[in-house]
Design a protein that fits this description.
By secondary structure, the chain is α/β, with parallel strands linked by helices. The protein folds into two domains: about 130 residues, NAD(P)-binding Rossmann-like Domain (Rossmann fold, 3-Layer(aba) Sandwich); about 70 residues, Regulator of K+ conductance, C-terminal domain (Alpha-Beta Plaits, 2-Layer Sandwich). The chain contains six helices and eleven strands. The strands form two sheets. Strands 3-2-1-4-5-6 form a six-stranded parallel beta sheet, with helices on both faces. It is elongated. About 30% of the residues are buried.
């Protein structure tokens, strides 16, 4: 995959040096050329000095051919602007913005921008969001410990109940949308084809949820 990282601080540099050995093509942008020293002498990705939301800089970084963008500078405003440009103008499939002020998370969520908080989110978790997860969180709670995930009912769960997917303290069915109406399930609610679920999930239980869904 082609990944563009905006911001070469601790998180940006750590993410870049995590992804390159996995075979991904990584480009990292930072306004301070000296920031690239954090990548080390053996970094095989591309580095571009410049403002992370400048159109010409983004074009030079190959954003038109990018599969995922992570905006992880120290500025919430810069991260959100860069993310909106990536999503709305260049239609990048996966966009994640680092957010320091978690009180603003709901505003950015309504804009369609997936956010991560600086605490409770490791570099490996950001990589998972960019590369692997077929489960896109629609909201995060606290400092990212719990996610609200929206997912279409998989074939293997049709005819089964919420008991087959609930794990005490880890995974809970919050609501079910069926025939354009949303309701709160009772214990034993049977899933039907076409159902859409909202699940509250510990971020540490993501792999377990994927197993239960057959991903």
């Amino acid at each position: 995959m082609k990944i563009l990282i905006i911001g070469c601080g601790r998180v940006g540099a750590g993410l870049a040096t995590t992804l390159v050995p996995r075979g991904h093509s990584v480009t990292i942008v930072d306004k301070d050329p000296l920031a690239f020293e954090k990548l080390g002498d053996h970094f095989k990705g591309q580095t571009i000095p410049g403002i992370g939301f400048d159109r010409e800089v983004l074009l030079k970084a190959g954003i038109e051919r990018t599969d995922g963008v992570a905006a992880v500078t120290v500025s919430d405003e810069a991260n959100v602007v860069a993310s909106r440009i990536a999503r709305d103008i260049f239609h990048v499939p996966k966009v994640v913005a680092r957010l320091y002020d978690i009180r603003q998370a709901e505003i950015y969520r309504r804009l369609g921008i997936q956010t991560i908080a600086p605490t409770g989110w490791g570099i490996s978790r950001i990589a998972d969001l960019l590369l692997y997860s077929p489960l896109d969180p629609v909201f995060t709670l606290g400092s990212g410990e719990v996610e609200l995930i929206e997912v279409d009912i998989p074939q293997l769960l049709i005819g089964k109940s919420d008991r087959d997917i609930m794990v005490a303290g880890e995974i809970h069915v919050v609501s079910v949308t069926r025939a354009n109406k949303t309701f709160l399930p009772t214990l034993g609610t049977v899933f039907r084809e076409g159902d859409r679920l909202h699940l509250a999930v510990l971020t540490t239980s993501g792999n377990r949820l994927k197993e239960l869904l057959g991903y």
